[in-house]
């Protein structure tokens, strides 16, 4: 690979990293190609991508960007999972894959420029995803008018029962 190809690759990595909210660095030493392909598919479904590049190129690409905190931590075999849309979905995909794989382990990462160790990434993966949070918010927003209507209906219903009782008492 000559200098111009390396420069183009660095720019591509830098653009992907800058567009991403989360970057997860993992060790994949000894991982078979089939397993790596399954991981790439899982990440693509979660809205992320997986990059495997030389550590020196990754250090250069991550320097001065939003994920600058992890630039000096690229050692040995590193795979970088990037996610632009839903960082929790990417963290879940990586954490779930790490639980099932014997050769893949999460090292550390960066969420919007803040360093996260492996335990913090695991905690992030256990959070509910964007869809679950939106469903909970919509459920709470829907509950307020529903409860208000029920409260008003119960008030009117109580008054109707009282009027009906008075009517039956006068009729008897």
Question: Care to describe what's here?
Answer:
This protein is an alpha+beta fold. The chain contains six helices and five strands. A five-stranded antiparallel β-sheet has the order 2-3-1-4-5, with helices on both faces. A hairpin with a 2-residue loop joins strand 4 and strand 5. Helix 1 (3-19) crosses helix 3 (55-62) and helix 4 (87-100) packs across helix 5 (118-125). The model has no long low-confidence stretch (mean pLDDT 89).
How many domains in all?
2
Radius of gyration equals 27 Å
Sketch the topology as an H/E string, one letter per element.
HEHEHEHEEHH
Please name the fourth-level CATH homologous superfamily of the largest domain.
Ribosomal protein L10, N-terminal RNA-binding domain
Main sheet properties = 5 strands, antiparallel
The total beta strand count reads: 5
Spatial strand order of the main sheet: 2-3-1-4-5
Helix proportion: 55-70%
Number of helices: 6
CATH topology of the largest domain: Alpha-Beta Plaits
């Amino acid at each position: 690979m000559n200098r111009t190809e390396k420069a183009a690759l660095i720019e591509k990595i830098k653009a992907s990293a800058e567009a991403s909210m989360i970057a997860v660095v993992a060790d994949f030493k000894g991982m078979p190609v089939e397993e790596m392909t399954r991981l790439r598919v899982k990440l693509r479904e979660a809205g992320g991508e997986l990059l495997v590049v030389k550590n020196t190129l990754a250090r250069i690409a991550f320097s001065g960007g939003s994920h600058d905190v992890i630039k000096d931590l690229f050692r040995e075999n590193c795979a970088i999972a990037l996610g632009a849309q839903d960082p929790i979905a990417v963290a879940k995909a990586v954490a779930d894959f790490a639980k099932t794989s014997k050769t893949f382990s999460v090292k550390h990462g960066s969420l919007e420029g803040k360093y996260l160790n492996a335990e913090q990434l695991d905690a992030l993966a256990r959070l509910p995803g964007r869809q679950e949070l939106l469903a909970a918010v919509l459920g709470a927003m829907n509950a307020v008018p529903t409860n208000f209507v029920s409260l008003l209906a119960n008030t009117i219903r109580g008054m109707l029962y009282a009027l009906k009782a008075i009517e039956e008492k006068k009729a008897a």
